[in-house]
Amino acid sequence: xxxxxxxxxxxxxxxxxxxxxxxxxxxxxxxxxxxxxxxxxxxxxxxxxxxxxxxxxxxxxxxxxxxxxxxxxxxxxxxxxxxxxxxxxxxxxxxxxxxxxxxxxxxxxxxxxxxxxxxxxxxxxxxxxxxxxxxxxxxxxxxxxxxxxxxxxxxxxxxxxxxxxxxxxxxxxxxxxxxxxxxxxxxxxxxxxxxxxxxxxxxxxxxxxxxxxxxxxxxxxxxxx
Length: 225
Prior knowledge:
Elements lengths: L2 H7 L4 H14 L4 H13 L3 H14 L4 H13 L3 H14 L4 H13 L7 H20 L4 H13 L3 H14 L4 H13 L3 H13 L6 H7 L6
């Protein structure tokens, strides 16, 4: 088959992709991967209710399809159902041992649940998030977002140096990951290392990250003319 023939057979829009996948399911209703791909296409069109139904079909056909649980968690997150999002990602880690993304997402949700009242419950959520993030990193040592989220969890516990180390690990993997540079700028300022704070602030901005104005104002007196 020539490249031209292949191009003619590729779906030209999300609607065509959906039609093609539904046609495939007509002949093979038990294919969990096809259900999953259909759900992804439906989510691309923001048809979340239908996508949710199809994802459940995907899991019924393929119980170990951890990615389907993660997408269901994402749908929950969109409607601010943090507990539902946590539950689905927990199911993802049960469906597939060592599924790093599920652990990372559970940690993210736990940190979102912290209400900032310095309660014992908040402390337990942060500690649990840290444990999940360490599991995520064990299963995927290049999981950049896990390192930055781990850094945030450490910052929430007042562990600035540990937070710095986590974000430094992130930029070892992805030197141009702007969130890590922004986090390092905040942390180095807190630690009194203003030159490093300025360097990482400028790097984050150069990479297109919208650095908070408050941070830039705090660094301004330390900038050399």
